[in-house]
TrEMBL record:
Signal peptide: 1-22
GO BP term, pick one: monoatomic ion transport
Annotated ranges, domain Porin: 8-323
Chief site of localization: membrane
GO terms, molecular function: porin activity
One protein family per Pfam: Porin_4
Species this protein is from: Thalassospira tepidiphila MCCC 1A03514
Cellular compartments per GO CC: cell outer membrane; pore complex
Subunit and partners: Homotrimer.
Record bears the keyword Signal: yes
Subcellular location: Cell outer membrane
Keyword vocabulary terms for this entry: Cell outer membrane, Ion transport, Membrane, Porin, Signal, Transmembrane, Transmembrane beta strand, Transport
Name of the protein in question: Porin
């Protein structure tokens, strides 16, 4: 891994060589989004109702410049607008929250792109999943915002916004590769990965068009502490339709280390999704099925399986304004009756997304 970091640093150094100054100073632009959702869900009576109003807001600051030698240098800063979504500044569960979500800089040119800072990493950025629109996707981990369940399908369960170095190759013949490394060293001004262990993630993707048919394929994975996860996804677009599917396997010890004394050993998780979307003028609709299987946890034994079906709508009302809705059903079947892994129900969520 040190060789990779040295090679990335060398690429950046070569790119900067001979550049006296930027042709234009960096000026920040402002963007972001606001999402406001209202919904209702029906589930087993023994579970306390979840919040039926959800919000997510981010303000994005970005800027870039092109040096005299053609190398582009830029930065991206994402400010959270909802305290419930704030990333902890220590990334280890301790106090000291901050309103900054992601903050990173990049250097790009003919050699590819190098990123430095707190961001999702290569696996999260390159993972392809089944198409799904609407505020509650069957395959993106948002189901737990509305109902109680232990198993939530997520075929790209990448780690969070740890500070890391990421390198993306140039796209050649439709192929592109990326690799990220988050260190375990800490300092007063350096966030580390949770529990202080290094994390490596990577991905390989292909995207191409053939006589009106678009194809996307990804192979991604991540290693963290005692475990790892890996997955593959693909989509095919033709006419107004897009179909796709993805599957991933996660070692139960990914990000958790060895279980405490006396606890059950963590086992693997399997996630799968398949879906189709149809775009017509200002509206896009989708239908997605997702399945998740969790073979035990540190406190609960047995197999936990969940099936979810989601129908979504994304209707553009104007520039940057869309109305989005979801109808979902889930059935979580575990081997511990009365627990959170034995629940079923359905829900309806609607609201607006403002992009700016």
């Amino acid at each position: 891994m040190k060789k990779i970091l040295v090679a990335s640093s060398a690429l950046v150094a070569v790119g900067f060589a001979g550049a006296a100054q930027a042709s234009e100073p960096i000026s920040l632009s402002v963007g972001g989004y606001m999402e406001q959702w209202v919904g209702a869900a029906s589930e087993e009576n023994r579970f306390e109702a979840k919040n039926k109003i959800q919000s997510d807001t981010e303000i994005h600051f970005s800027g870039s410049t092109t040096l005299d030698n053609g190398i582009e240098v830029g930065a991206s800063i994402e400010l959270e607008g909802n305290n419930s979504n704030v990333r902890n500044s220590a990334d280890d569960g301790s106090s000291g929250a901050t309103n900054i979500d992601e903050s990173w800089m990049y250097v790009s040119g003919g050699f590819g792109e190098v990123r430095l800072g707190a961001e999702d990493g290569a696996a999260a950025d390159m993972g392809i999943t089944a198409p799904s629109v609407g505020p509650v996707g069957a395959n993106d981990g948002d189901l737990g915002n509305w109902v109680t369940t232990n198993a939530i399908p997520d075929t790209v369960p990448a780690g969070g916004d740890s500070k890391r170095v990421t390198y993306y190759t140039p796209t050649l013949g439709g192929f592109k590769a990326g690799i990220s490394y988050a260190d375990d060293d800490s300092s007063e001004n350096s966030n580390t990965v949770a529990t202080g262990d290094s994390r490596v993630s990577g991905g390989l993707e292909y995207r191409g068009d053939f006589d009106g048919v678009s194809v996307g394929v990804s192979l991604v994975g991540e290693s963290f502490q005692e475990g790892e996860w890996y997955g593959v996804g693909a989509t095919v677009g033709f006419g107004n339709f897009t179909v796709g599917a993805s599957v991933s396997e996660t070692d139960g010890e990914f990000g958790a280390g060895e279980p405490a004394a006396g606890a059950n050993k963590l086992e693997d998780t399997t996630d799968f999704d398949i879906g189709v979307s149809y775009a017509m003028d200002a509206a896009t609709v989708s239908l997605t099925y997702a399945y998740g299987e969790n073979d035990g946890s540190a406190t609960v034994s047995g197999v936990d399986e969940i099936n979810t079906v989601h129908a979504g709508l994304d209707y553009t009302l104007g520039a940057g304004v869309s109305w989005r809705s979801s109808i979902f059903w889930f059935d979580d079947q575990g081997e511990n009756p009365g627990a959170a892994d034995d629940n079923e129900g359905y829900g309806v969520v609607t609201g607006f997304r403002l992009g700016f």
